[in-house]
Structure formats: C-alpha cells, structure tokens
Design a protein that fits this description.
By secondary structure, the protein is mainly beta. The protein is built from 7 helices and 31 strands. It has 3 domains: 159 residues, no CATH class; 186 residues, DNA ligase/mRNA capping enzyme (D-amino Acid Aminotransferase, Chain A, domain 1, 2-Layer Sandwich); 133 residues, OB fold (Dihydrolipoamide Acetyltransferase, E2P) (Beta Barrel).
C-alpha cells in the first residue's frame, strides 16, 4: 500500500509546480468518510492515463483518494476498465493543471478533464460505488479490487448508469470554405490566421480518431501518425476542423505532402511516414461532448478549441491575431507561407458553404518567363492551344519551368495563337525534354508538345517554385514586349520565389 512518503519523495518542489502539502498516510477507500468533491485529471506522462480522485477524510483532513485509469471511466455497459489505486494526494491537488517539467516524477502535461461533486452509493472492503455529477460525467460507477499483492493495488471500474443528457447529432462532415479575396486589410471585428498549405480534414475524435476529407472520404489510413489526435483532446468526443501539413525546414510544403496524398498501400505509407511526417493544425471546433457548436460564434469556438487541445505530438492549434491583417500577411510572406485567412467575429459555421465571413488572401509572385512551346487544347480550347510551355535561362540554357494553362481571356487566346504558330519549330528550346513528365505539380503528363523559337516573353503569377524547379499554380498575365528572352533568368525567379527581391 502506498504511503505519504511516496507522494513527497517522488517530487522536488523546487522544480515542479505541483502542490506541496502533507498527507498523513493513506485511507481505505472501502471505509473512509466521504467528502463531496471529485476531479479527473488527464495526464500525459510516459503513457496517457486519467487520474480519478475522490475527496475522502483522513481523520479531519480532506485528501484525494486516487486511481490511475489508463482508459478513463467507461461510458458503455459491460466494459470494465483497469484502475490502479495510487497514493492519496493533498486536497489542493484538485485544482492542479499545468506542466510537470521533464526530470520530475510524472513529467508531462496535466489537465482537468472533469470535476464536480460525488456521493457514495455503497462502500465496503475492496469495493466502492459512487455517483458523479460533473461537467462531462454524470452517472454511477462501481470500483472493485481485483488484486492486492507485490505492491500493486489493482481495481476495475464499470459503468452503473449513464445519466448524461442525450447527445445532439454531430454536424454534417462538410467543411466551410473561404471566398478568395485579393488584398489584406485591417479591420475591427475580424481575426486573421495563417493559411496552411496542406490537406483540409475534419478530425472526428472519440475513442479513436477518424479523418474525413473535404469531399467526405475517410482518409484515416493514409496518415497513421495522426491516429492519436483524440488523445490530445480534453474531451469525450469532438469534431475538429483543420489542415494536415507536411513541414520542410519549418514551413509547410505541399510538394512533400503530395507524395503521400495518393498512397494506399500500408507498406508504402509506412515507408514514407518517417521521412515525411505530417502534423494536424487545428483551427475550429464543430462539436464537443455531445453538443453541436456550429451555431456558436467563431470566437466561442476558438476559445473552446484552445481549452481542449493539449498541443504536442502531431497536433497544434493555429495562431491568430485580431484586427491587423496587413501585418500578418507581411509576416507570413517572410516565412514563405501560402497566405492568410480573415474570419469575421460573430460568424457561425456553415458546413458545405463558401462564405464571405471567411476570406482567403493568397501570396502570389510575379515573374517573367520565356515561351518555348504549347500543348494542344481540348474542349472549348480545341481550336487554340491548351497551355504555354515556359522556361527561364540558367547558365545560357533554357530551363523548363512548367505549363501555364489559366489566366487567358478569349481575346488573348486569339492574339497569342497566330504568334505561336508563326514561331513553331522542330527544335526543342529547353535543355531537358519535358515530354512524358508532369508539366507542374498538379498537371497532366505532357504529351506531343509543340515547340516555338524562344522569343516571346510572358508575365505570369505563381504560388511557389518547387524543389525540382516547377512553377506551382501559374497563371498568365500578359505578354512583355519590353523585355528580351535572354533577360529572363532562373536566378531572378528563385530570388522572387524566396522573397529576396
């Protein structure tokens, strides 16, 4: 049986914020006089567990009789959970929530999972029945000792009766989408957060984690390292909105993430998981402990999200600022992020809708590139070209940058088409042959390209220059008649993409 010496001897009060108090030995939970308060603390120590603590009296002194419950209290009938009786804790411990520093006993994060009042229903040698009236748990449970030898005091806990209100139905598993906007702004009544360049997913968390994509596909198996997100939440159940992100030197890299998106074979997923791990960035909360939050204003949902997430492992909470969107956009530019999202305070969450309460402002770069060919058009473009094949000069050789297939008006198609035909040649202008490769990270495989003499210069916008030198999301902005092809240098493009100019 544990004693007070265990509690005090295991803790160095110079380095832990835990309460320092005296406990005069341990009481027998089967016979001690009951108090009124209980607390359940979620403890991310070496292994996640939950500490059930019931107020009882040691003489006239209130103490917390404690059990470590690895799987928390059961919420289903006929589902016994292990509960290991540990040393009594001082009554002051019922309010403890925080970080136990590394090197201390029980190092890790501790949060109050539930608290309230309780009453004893039955008490006797090796058994204790009680009713809880908390914020998350309401009902009765039964504790029974199963083993007390070799210094171990093991019990099981089973559900007697679940007295929680009937839960509300969960929200539709559809994300709310932002409307594209062109400029950042400062405005009271708005918050601004980074736009994370990844895969949007709802995390449906209960006794396990399920990941649902924006098109309602279950993508849980594609990201095994996110299977423990539910353990990072101080919640019985929740639906969180966020983004799955792969980082490269501290910044999100969709290029890296793309190598995982379409993997289905478990061996392939396991192979790349160690080299390209992902993190879930949470930014909204739609459902919590049986209550739908989609009609609540965003500021309440954000506050609840901050309260229930224990950041760490593979889960983080997106930061945001109030009012000052212009400064945030400049800051994310310096970090080479995708952009920002502006969100209007007071707004509800509207699953499946694209709304103006959320505005996305993307960071785009301008560049001048050489037109070196085109691909055949299809559908409405069948009488013109489909995309322009572009490049830039590196050490005197024209390097292929990808295909530009958007941004053209009907008039521009009519203007460009005869120019391209007039410059057509059988000689490939690019130093490498892009035939059979993807013209950009999301493009089709390039088939039967037509080459042109490298004389025309086009201005394009793009989101990113990938590690293999391809433009991501390029869009045509017009011809440059005031610049020669030889002036379009790859080193200038790299400087623009990295924010050096």
């Amino acid at each position: 049986m544990s004693t007070d010496r265990d509690y005090r001897a295991k803790r160095s009060y110079e380095s832990t914020p835990e309460p320092e108090a005296s406990v005069a030995g341990n009481v027998d939970p089967g016979s001690a006089r009951a108090g009124t308060d209980f607390v359940i603390q979620q403890h991310h120590a070496r292994r996640l567990h939950f500490d059930l603590r019931l107020e009882m009296f040691n003489g006239d002194t209130p103490v917390l009789v404690s059990w470590a419950v690895p799987r928390n209290l059961p919420t289903k009938k006929k589902e016994p959970h292990l509960a290991v009786h540990t040393e009594d804790h001082p009554i002051e411990y019922r309010d403890f929530s925080g970080t136990i520093p590394a090197g201390n006993y029980g190092a890790g994060e501790m949060r109050i999972f539930d608290s309230g009042t309780y009453e004893v229903l039955e008490q006797g040698p090796g058994k204790l029945s009680f009713r809880l009236q908390g914020k998350r748990f309401q009902g009765s449970w039964h504790l029974n000792r199963t083993r007390q030898e070799d210094g171990k005091d093991e019990w099981i806990v089973i559900l007697g009766r679940d007295e929680r209100p009937a839960p509300a139905p969960p929200p539709p598993f559809e994300v709310m989408n932002a409307t594209l906007s062109t400029e950042a702004f400062d405005k009271d009544g708005w918050i601004f957060e980074p736009k994370w360049d990844g895969v949007r997913a709802l995390a449906v968390c209960k006794e396990e984690t399920k990941l649902i994509s924006r098109n309602q596909r279950d993508i849980t198996s594609a990201y095994p390292e996110l299977g423990g997100l539910h353990e990072r939440l101080v919640a019985l159940d929740a639906v969180v909105d966020g983004e799955i992100v792969a980082f490269d030197e501290g910044r999100p890299s969709f290029e890296k993430l793309q190598s995982r998106i379409n993997l289905q074979n478990p061996r392939d997923i396991e192979r790349v998981m160690s080299s390209i791990p992902v993190t879930y960035i949470a930014f909204d909360l739609l459902y919590l402990d049986g209550r739908s939050l989609i009609t609540a204003p965003i500021e309440e949902r954000k506050a609840a999200l901050d309260e229930i997430v224990i950041p760490g492992g593979r889960m983080q909470v997106s930061t945001f600022v109030a009012t000052e969107g212009i400064a945030l956009l400049e800051a994310v530019k310096q970090r080479r992020l995708e952009g920002i999202v502006a969100k209007k305070l007071g707004g509800s969450y509207r699953p499946g809708k694209r709304v103006r309460d959320w505005l996305k402002i993307k960071i785009v770069h301008d560049a001048d590139v050489v037109i070196g060919g085109w691909s055949r058009g299809e559908g409405s473009r069948s009488t013109h070209f489909g995309s322009l094949l572009v490049g830039a000069y590196l050490e005197g050789e024209l390097r292929f940058l990808g295909a530009v297939g958007t941004g053209f008006t009907g008039r521009e198609l009519d203007t460009l088409w005869p120019k391209l035909q007039a410059l057509e040649t059988s000689d490939r202008p690019f130093v490498e042959d892009p035939t059979g490769t993807r013209s950009n990270p999301f493009g089709k495989v390039l088939r039967d390209p037509h080459w042109t003499k490298p004389e025309l210069v086009a201005k394009v916008e793009f989101r990113e220059l990938t590690s293999v030198g391809r433009l991501r999301a390029p869009s045509y902005k017009g011809l440059r008649n005031d610049k020669s092809a030889e002036e379009c240098l790859y080193e200038d493009l790299v400087a623009v993409a990295h924010g050096s100019v």
